[in-house]
TrEMBL record:
GO terms for molecular function: oxidoreductase activity. This is Dihydroorotate dehydrogenase, electron transfer subunit, iron-sulfur cluster binding domain-containing protein. Residues 81-123 form the Dihydroorotate dehydrogenase electron transfer subunit iron-sulphur cluster binding domain. Residues 2-65 form the Oxidoreductase FAD/NAD(P)-binding domain.
Amino acid sequence: MGYRNKDHVVLEDEYKKLSDKYFISTDDGSAGYKGLVTDLLEKELQEKSIDIVYACGPTPMIRKVMELTNKYDTKCQVSMEQRMGCGIGACLVCACKTKAENEDGWEYSHVCKDGPVFWSNEIILD
């Protein structure tokens, strides 16, 4: 989990109950690792066996998490944070590219009805 500082850390005890491995990074080092959460993730992926990574956050961070989990052959699920206009897939506001077995190799999926959580190897971030 990445936070600005220790004052922004939430639900720490609850997260610890849900996972054998729970890591915190803060921008200022006031709690856990000092630095970007993606730097901490790479360090942990290099040193330890991690079964699966769950990620949500800004697209540049998601892109880096996907790159790292692919590099270290680790399963990953990402929660996409597109705006959702209608909530039923009709308006296309929340469309995101996903891999598909068609001529183009991709199609649009709707975050509102097909997600918002996707396997990282299904998502295409341009």
